Amino acid sequence: MEINRIIDHTLLKPEATEAQIEEIVREAKEYNFFSVCVNPTWVKKCAEMLKNSSVKVCTVIGFPLGANTLETKIFETENAIENGADEIDMVINVGYVKSKKFNEVEDEIREIAKVCHDNGKILKVILENCLLTKDEIKKACEISDRAGADFVKTSTGFSTSGASAEDVKLMRDSVSDRVKVKASGGIRDYKKAIEMINNGADRLGVSAGVAIYKESKLL
């Protein structure tokens, strides 16, 4: 397994500068990561820099709280795709999950999935597991699967904790074979990355992609 090909090289800090964005794009090309994952304001720049490259552009929608209206999330998604995004990581409406407003959660994911798929793009649904019970994680995975999401993702990396191997396994067990799992948040070394992969992660969202890749080559 070439670990670089499952890494979304990520920089989502609000204070990230243009120079830092340019640097992660250069790194993504050098190490042949699967994608760069950036905030929407940087999508167009990354798409231009990655033209004629195998590296994809991933961005985040409803980030990091997930509490935007459906109409806002749809606009964000359409705008990101117009600007060159290949993959959309949308934060689920956590408050709706906690309130058992499951029909509304499913409708939202289905609407965003339709926008993505009509444009040939991938949708990942960020669950923010640290705010959910195990039963809620399972339910959110089942809803995401039913609504047409391509991935379920553990975390934004901006809440109380990030990915856990236990949660990755629960997510893998709670979706069909069609749906993949992305682990993100707090994965800073090769050992942790492999733990996530062994528990069912198909993709890793990491800011330490270069260090993880270099470490993998030493073993």
TrEMBL record:
EC number: 4.1.2.4
Principal location: cytoplasm
GO CC list: cytoplasm
UniProt pathway annotation: Carbohydrate degradation; 2-deoxy-D-ribose 1-phosphate degradation; D-glyceraldehyde 3-phosphate and acetaldehyde from 2-deoxy-alpha-D-ribose 1-phosphate: step 2/2
The keyword Cell inner membrane is assigned to this record: no
Residues that span the membrane, as ranges: none
Molecular function GO terms recorded: deoxyribose-phosphate aldolase activity
Gene3D superfamilies, per the entry: Aldolase class I (3.20.20.70)
UniProt-listed InterPro entries: Aldolase_TIM, DeoC, DeoC/FbaB/LacD_aldolase, DeoC_typeI
Catalysed transformations (reactions): 2-deoxy-D-ribose 5-phosphate = D-glyceraldehyde 3-phosphate + acetaldehyde
SMART domains, A to Z: DeoC
Compartment list: Cytoplasm
Top enzyme class: lyase
UniProt KW Transport keyword: no
Active site: D89, K153, K182
Keywords: Cytoplasm, Lyase, Schiff base
GO aspect biological process, one term: 2-deoxyribose 1-phosphate catabolic process
One Pfam family, short name: DeoC
Role noted for this protein: Catalyzes a reversible aldol reaction between acetaldehyde and D-glyceraldehyde 3-phosphate to generate 2-deoxy-D-ribose 5-phosphate.
Family: Belongs to the DeoC/FbaB aldolase family. DeoC type 1 subfamily.
Protein name: Deoxyribose-phosphate aldolase
Native species: Peptoniphilus porci
Gene name linked to the record: deoC
